Amino acid sequence: MGLTFTYFYNSPSYAGRAGDVLEDNPVGRLKVFVYELLKKYNKKILQKDPRCLTHMFAAEIFMHRFLLSSPVHTLNPDEADWFYTPVYTTCNLTPNGLPLPFKSPRMMRSAIQLISSNWPYWNRTEGADHFFIVPHDFGACFHYQEKKAIERGILPLLWRSTLVQTFGQRNHVCLKQGSITIPPYAPPQKMLGN
Question: Three-state DSSP class for 48?
Fold first, then answer.
């Protein structure tokens, strides 16, 4: 059956249709532009508290690093399909290592103001082709207590953007349709039992 399927979609009558899509290398086509933000949104925060590198919410740091070295990364925003804004909103930790998400909405608004003032890409779609990593307990509601997270709701500036988050409870106000749910970060040494 696989041969028939392959032959059917590769036949001349289907040239330029599904066969091309099925055979394309998506990594060769997908392009992500990573905004170069002021260090106060990411690098300085990490320098202030390196515990963020091993925290369960470190996905925002490692996704940033991954994208910068990935074949999908483009330096030309005009050829980008997606735009990533590297804001480390969970890296503000208490002495006990718990995240303090209270500054996160202000930080996110500030970063969006920066990119919308300096580049045209946010403004042309109101962020619909942008994605953010929001690995808080209740994602882009930016609060660790559910009741307060529900009251706060998702930051309105992020309503059109794709949210990549570790929170995945269905039918919850803090999980908008179209969000991508990923597992919390676990340091490789913990995964290997070292």
Answer: helix
